[in-house]
């Protein structure tokens, strides 16, 4: 659903290099662990970040998350971010992935017991 967290990961920077000093543009490669749609993953990727005049960052990158069974989930993404204390970065953006789709799940229900607008019943699961 719109606004739901689909995945989250934490990792460490492996390599950082300056591609340009005016404007500042940096390339970073990283490794991480986390979850995507409830599935545990180990990942890696590379992205570039460019500083904007207002102090924000724009970044683009690509990489892969590897599920426990070895199946890769490749991704490409872009987003806006900001610098945090200690040189950490925080980004919000969009990822598009290939290589894996989660199994179908039945629609979630709101607190009132009604389906969210736009959801349809799963064809193979009995609805209460």
Protein described:
This protein is mostly beta strands and about 130 residues long. The chain has a single domain (about 5-100), classed as Porin (Beta Barrel). It has no helices and 6 strands. The protein has strands spanning about 5-20, 25-35, 40-50, 55-65, 70-85, 90-100. The protein has a 6-stranded antiparallel sheet with strand order 1-2-3-4-5-6, with no helix packed on it. A hairpin with a 2-residue loop joins strand 2 and strand 3 (about 40-50). The chain is globular and about 45 Å long. The two termini are about 20 Å apart.
| The CATH top-level class label | Mainly Beta
Q: How confident is the prediction overall: mean pLDDT? A: 79
* Number of DSSP-assigned strands: 6
- Oligomeric description of these chains: single chain
Radius of gyration: 18 Å
Shape: globular
Order of helices and strands: EEEEEE
Give the domain tally: 1
N-end to C-end Cα span = 21 Å
Q: Which strands sit side by side, in order, in the main sheet? A: 1-2-3-4-5-6
- Class based on secondary structure composition and strand pairing: mainly beta
Proportion of strand residues? over 45%
Instruction: Please work out how many helical segments DSSP would assign.
Output: 0
**According to CATH, what is the topology?**
Porin
Uncertain segments are 109-128
Question: Helicity level, as a percent range?
Answer: under 10%
CATH architecture: Beta Barrel
Let me know the largest β-sheet.
6 strands, antiparallel
